[in-house]
From TrEMBL:
The lineage of its organism: Bacteria, Bacillati, Actinomycetota, Actinomycetes, Streptosporangiales. It comes from the Bacteria. InterPro entries: DUF6230 (IPR046198). Pfam families: DUF6230. It comes from Trebonia kvetii. This is Cholesterol esterase.
């Protein structure tokens, strides 16, 4: 009897440790997403986690749009000097309103979903930059320049790419049924009305 009584608490502790190992990184990721800060220049960037996340929205309306290639760096196994480079597109918008925003990410086998702007008030963001390897939707642009040198972009203050590359920019952008497979997001400001976080499911 003594042996069986000791086994239960031990198994409980093991389950709690496994849950905490997945739960704590997810909460930290959520805190980072809510407290986003701006990168003045993309070349001065943070090391990404290397964990992709999905962003969807029913509608995005933006003023000042830029898109160009960038390379982000992730640290492998938390070992300094052990890095991996990911080739992505930087998608920058000077100001944006976003309806029915959803973000989902899997951390430690646990799915976390964040939603906002699902009511009458949309999400708003300024100097929004999303580094992604997939970007889709029904898009329309005004005053678009395609094939511009990334170092000469001027639609989003302080956000430019490396000279000699390929880029596009536009005065405005509208995207229906937006979907991005992203690795990093920054913003000068990010207002999330109706913010909700839950575990399980996907966008």
């Amino acid at each position: 009897m003594a042996s069986s009584m000791e086994t239960g608490p031990q198994e409980g502790r093991v389950r709690w440790r496994r849950f905490a190992a997945a739960f704590v990184p997810a909460i930290l990721a959520a805190a980072v997403l809510v407290l986003l800060t701006a990168r003045s220049v993309l070349a001065v960037s943070f090391n990404i986690s290397g964990t992709p996340f999905v962003v969807t929205a029913s509608h995005l309306d933006g003023h000042g749009f830029e898109q160009f290639g960038t390379v982000d760096t992730s640290v492998l196994n938390n070992l300094p000097g052990n890095t991996n480079q990911v080739i992505l597109t930087a998608n920058a918008i000077r100001s944006a309103t976003i309806s029915h925003l959803c973000l989902s990410v899997t951390v430690g086998g646990l799915s976390m979903v964040i939603t906002a702007g699902t009511g009458g008030t949309p999400v708003t963001a300024s100097n929004l930059v999303v580094d992604a390897d997939q970007f889709s939707g029904e898009a329309s642009f005004t005053q678009i320049n395609i094939g511009r040198d990334p170092s000469t972009l001027n639609q989003v203050p302080g956000v430019t790419g490396q000279p000699g590359g390929y880029a596009l920019q536009a005065a405005t952008v509208e995207i229906e049924n937006l979907r991005q497979h992203a690795y990093a997001t920054t913003a000068g400001s990010f207002t999330l009305p109706g913010f909700r976080l839950h575990f399980g499911g996907a966008c």
